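Quick one, tokens below. Sequence please?
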């Protein structure tokens, strides 16, 4: 604790009992809401290694089935790890974490391969591990005059 005077900063020594009381006030539950959120997200990301064997086996299956349309195995695995981190951060605590994470990663990877989707939450920098993207067809309403230009 410091007190500022007109000339200089003077350190004031607190007795241990008073210091303990100050720490106890700081660590009350209402002060820990932000810290708990950070601690929870760190603990979520720290257990990603338990999903690594599942990611490897899923990437092996996808690469064996769709390898002709995938840039490289490393890109596929990197995207799977990215999706894993998104799934861990999006998990809200309801239900089984492992089931949610595995289904999320599996569905997103297959959607990226089959439907040409980009990875989610890409902050305007879309990326994909797929060579030829077959995007879903989007129907656009056109004027009949412009359609007549393209008739044979």
């Amino acid at each position: 604790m410091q007190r500022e005077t007109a000339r200089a900063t003077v350190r004031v020594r607190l007795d241990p009992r008073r210091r303990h009381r100050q720490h106890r006030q700081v660590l009350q539950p209402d002060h820990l809401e932000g810290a708990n959120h950070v601690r929870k997200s760190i603990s979520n990301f720290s257990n990603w290694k338990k999903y690594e064997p599942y990611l490897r086996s899923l990437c092996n299956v996808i690469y064996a089935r769709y390898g002709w349309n995938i840039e490289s195995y490393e890109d596929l695995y990197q995207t799977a790890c990215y999706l894993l981190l998104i799934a861990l951060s999006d998990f809200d605590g309801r239900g089984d974490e492992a089931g949610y994470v595995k289904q999320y990663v599996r569905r997103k990877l297959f959607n990226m391969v089959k439907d040409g989707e980009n990875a989610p939450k890409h902050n305007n920098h879309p990326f994909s591990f797929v060579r030829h993207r077959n995007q879903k067809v989007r129907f656009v309403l056109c004027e009949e005059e412009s359609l007549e230009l393209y008739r044979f």
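Residues 16-46 form one domain. The chain has two domains: 16-46, 49-152.
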